[in-house]
Amino acid sequence: MAVQVKEQVPGHKAELNGTASALKAKILDKTAVVAVIGAGYVGLPLAVEKTKVGFNVIAIDQNEKRVDKLNRGENYILDVKNEELARAVTEGKLKATSDFSVLPQADVIIICVPTPLTRNREPDLRYIVNVTEQIAKHLKTGQLVCLESTTYPGTTEEVILPRLEARGLKVGEDFFLAFSPERVDPGNARYTTRNTNKLVGGVTPACLDVASTFYSQTILKVIPVSSPSVAEMAKVFENTYRAVNIALVNEMALLCDRMGLDVWEVLDAAFTKPFGIQPFYPGPGVGGHCIPIDPFYLAWKAREYDFSTRFIELAGEVNLRMPYFVVEKAARILGLQKKSVRGAKVFILGVAYKKDLPDERESPALKVIQLLLKEGAQVRYHDPFIPQVTLPNGSPGSGSYEGGPATTLKSVPLDDSTLAQADIVIITTDHSCIDYGRVVKCAKAVLDTRHATRTIGEAVDGRVWRL
Q1: What is the spatial distance between Cα 142 and Cα 403, in angstroms, rounded to a whole number?
Q2: This prediction's pTM
Q3: Three-state secondary structure call for residue 388
Q4: Which H or E element spans position 234?
């Protein structure tokens, strides 16, 4: 039985017309068809969760390989259980397509597309705009459209709404529009789509009512807020909070390096305090689909109001500095061997942005590799979850120590000879399946940016340098 929404937003009690009431009835009896646009880390778990309570779901994705895999019942997202996806496909509850012409079949349309940055670190909404224009072509009376992609406050009402109303339908009466931010933490087994609190902001009270009803069918606690902009701001703040605190410990790492202190020992000591502090840890930078991007969305929007988010922008600068610091420290370590970065054999251990995940989006390891290649290093990498990576902007690369330009690097086996051959091993992702004791034993020098070698003990002396 679905948990109904209990929270109320003052002043937002909805008076529903027949269109809204009919859509709510279809949602409640699970006859509503759901279209999820973007079958990635956000969209696919959401789509599968909806099938589990009886909804028929259409996954729309422009990646034909994804579409083919989904229609065969093949999983490619870690947070989705193989058997649940296979069951949804076998029972006909989940189908995939790249064709937007299926949108008129849907009663509920969920947008889960990327929101990257431009080269100048400004919001890139081309995916949202393109999808919205496709929805507008097929929009019909009685549909609910929800945006889940993280974006700056105002996107739903300033970018999506005018395009949907341009053909004559009116929001809150003919169709319904809301923003409900994704809160996906890939690899987190404790908090899933179902048990993570869900914010919902509707353009009108009727939009809020319909959207809250929809999400409450599969999510344990739905929290309505007064507008899409409030929900958009809340989501961006959540990730900015993390970015700022990570920047703080990253800057602490830079200072401790200058002072000859072990930042990890300092942090372990500080985090023994039972109140007033929350653990965050330094690293080679920040990665993933949110933390490296969302603060820049907020800073960009703030400039529209003649407001400078100095604290947030400074945090972004500190985090962007970390891959450069990693390369600088690697150069110092190589210097102790009387070697320079140019021509050095550098082995990168881990290119995923987060441990135990097959996801290299915005990974700082890729920036470290680019910087090393630019300095003339010969770079190889190993990652058990990422068989190959393509460096952005056609950067020069090499899949072997012999060198040679390439845009794609392939993971090489992690064996004793590979480790011993490298002049330095840089641990940029601390995957659980790696034997770091073996890494330290075989390597000439190790730069550990993730504190992966913390349990090795005395064996690290003189061979391991930490961030």
Answers
A1: 59
A2: 0.88
A3: strand
A4: helix 228-259
Q: Can you state the angle between helices 310-336 and 364-374, rounded to 10 degrees?
A: 50
Main-chain phi, psi angles of 326, to 5 degrees: -60, -45
Taken in order 229, 234, 239, 244, is the CA torsion positive or negative?
positive
Question: For residue 34, what are the β-bridge partners?
Answer: 57, 108
Q: How many CB atoms lie within 10 A of CB 168?
A: 7
Q: Annotated catalytic, 112?
A: no
- Among 112, 146, 256, 290, the one annotated catalytic: 290
Classify burial at 393, counting beta carbons within 10 Å of its beta carbon; exposed 0-12, middle 13-18, buried 19 or more.
Answer: exposed
Q: Please tell me the distance from the alpha carbon of residue 350 to that of residue 358, in angstroms, as a whole number.
A: 10
Judge whether residue 5 has pLDDT over 80: no
The answer to whether the CB of 120 falls within 8 A of the CB of 110 is no
Find, among 151, 87, 154, the residue nearest to 114 by Cα.
151
DSSP structure class, residue 252: H
Which domains, ranges and CATH numbers included, belong to the chain? 18-226 (3.40.50.720), 240-466 (3.40.50.720)
DSSP annotation of 5 reads P
Confidence of residue 13 (pLDDT cuts 50, 70, 90): low
Residue 389's beta-bridge partner residues?
A: 409
User: CB–CB of 342/375 below 8 Å?
Assistant: yes
Least Cα distance to 145 among 194, 179, 94 occurs for: 179
Q: Are strands 408-410 and 388-390 parallel, antiparallel or unpaired?
A: antiparallel
